Structures are given as C-alpha cells and as structure tokens.
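Q: What changes when cytidine-5'-monophosphate is included in the input?
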Amino acid sequence: MAHFASAEAPAKLNLGLKIVGKRPDGYHDLLSVFQAIDLSDALSFEEAEESRTEIRCADPALPIGPDNLIHRAVDALRRETGTRRGVRVSLTKVIPTGAGLGGGSSDAAATLRVLNGAWCLGLPGERLLELGAEIGSDVPFFLRPGTAIVSGRGERLRYVRLDGPVHYVLVRPPFEVSTAWAFRRLSERANFGLTARTKYVNLLNSIADSPISACELFACLENDFEPLVAETWPALKAARAALVTSGATACCMTGSGSVVFGVFFEAGPAIRAASELQRAGHRTFLCRPAGSVSAGR
Ligand code: C5P
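A: The predicted holo structure follows.
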C-alpha cells in the first residue's frame, strides 16, 4: 500500500506543574510550562482498506487497539468529516511510556495534523484543537509544540520564549506512572495546595510578553505530583539524587512521572553527566528544547 506521509512527534517536559483547582467535570485545572524537546517518536502513514485503522509497532508491549490515541485521533477525524479513508500507521516508539513525556498525546496530535492535511479535510486549527482536547488533555499543546504556559485542563496555551541555552538530562526510573492514578491520589488529599501562591505560581502569573528568565524559572521549579509519586516509588528519590550529584543546576519530575530531568546551562557538563548516569545503570536521555515539528511526504 502506498506511503503518503511521515511525521516526527516530539516529547515534552513540564518545567514545573501546579494543580490549581478541581473542576466540575472531574478534571483539574493546572498551571505549567510545557516545552517540546528533541526526543521524538516517528510515524509513517500508508493507505489501507476503506474505514480501516491499523497501527504497527515493533514494541509488543504497546497497546495498538482502539484505545491507542492514534486510533482515537483517526476515529475523531472520521466522525467529524465523514471520511472513510483507511490508514496504516507505523509507529517507531522512542519516547518512554508512563513517563510524563506526553508521547501518546504527541502521536495523536501528529496524526490529526498529518491526516487533516494529507486527506484535504480542511478542518481549521481551532477545530483540531477541540478534537485534540477530547482525545487527551495534552493533545492541544502538541498540535503546535514549542514552549507555552499551559492552564485550564491543558487547552489554554500561551506561547513564550525561555531565554538562555538549556540542556536537559532525563533519567527514567524503573517504573511507569498512570496519569489517572496520579490525579486520583492527588485529589484524595484534603489540601493539595489548590490556593498556594508559591514562587513558581507568582512567577508564571507575572509574565507578560517578556521572555521567561531561565534562571528564575529553574530556581523555583516544583511539581505537585512529585512527593506522592516518591511515596509510592522510592526509586524516584534515587534518580533525583543521582542528577543532583551529577551537577544539575535544578531537578524536577515531568508530568505525573516517572521521568526526572536535570537542567544544565552548558553542553559539556550535560554530556558528562548523561554518560556518568548511564554508566551507573540509569536509563538516560540527553535532550534540548525543540521548536515546531516536521511533517513531510
Ligand atoms: O486527559 P487525559 O486522558 O490525558 O487524562 C487522564 C486522566 O487524568 C483523566 O481521566 C483525569 O482523571 C486526569 N486529569 C485531570 N485533570 C487534567 C488532566 C487529566 O484530572 N487536567
């Protein structure tokens, strides 16, 4: 069957994450800086029989049925536009799952974007954002990956610039976290800081049009999920401690975990830290912020 498009689907880091409210629809309002990074899944699109959606992935642990977010993105486009075109998506999974890196959401956003274009469906950007939000809270961000202050359920995006060169060393501890589990655990706590006016919250609320100062942001990073994930999996603390020892300027968990990242302002120390951590047995990735993604034929 004919190949008709390819796309890269980048991961993201949450440069801090505060849960600021519980919503009537059961979801939570958050406040976070999302940043796309140069760690990406690769998707390749081929024609398939009418109305069929097939996902192929070399990783047998990855669920490829109707619950896969790629599948749900194709379903959403069919419902919305009435198209009956079939597609086979071959997915090269590079972004670890259950890691807080948004890989599944990014794959879904890439699918929405690519098929809307390649199938000439003509959905406007605003409608793609709404369809994305129905698939998952992080999908709207990945429709235009970059650096953004994200609020609401994940659908309010304010694109910003982070000044200064940044290098990240990611450590993936030996466990996965389910986002739904983490939100449930968090909302069981009577007072999980809904009204907290921390330095991080004040900084994000004070940013107008100027770039975010990387030094200021990384000096007040916090993630509301990190203490409760660490309670259940002590390996998280070990990953954080290893990053601190390796010289990271700041450390934080991303999303609902399990990845912890360390911040470096220079390439040399970041490269040395990543190889030391790797040698010590940690699963490690060396990353940089990424701009917009490529999608080509
Ligand atoms: O939207 P998504 O499917 O990624 O969310 C997974 C789960 O995380 C939801 O079922 C919900 O319980 C929780 N969630 C939340 N508030 C958000 C995002 C997710 O409560 N802003």
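Observations recorded in class: The mean pLDDT is 94.
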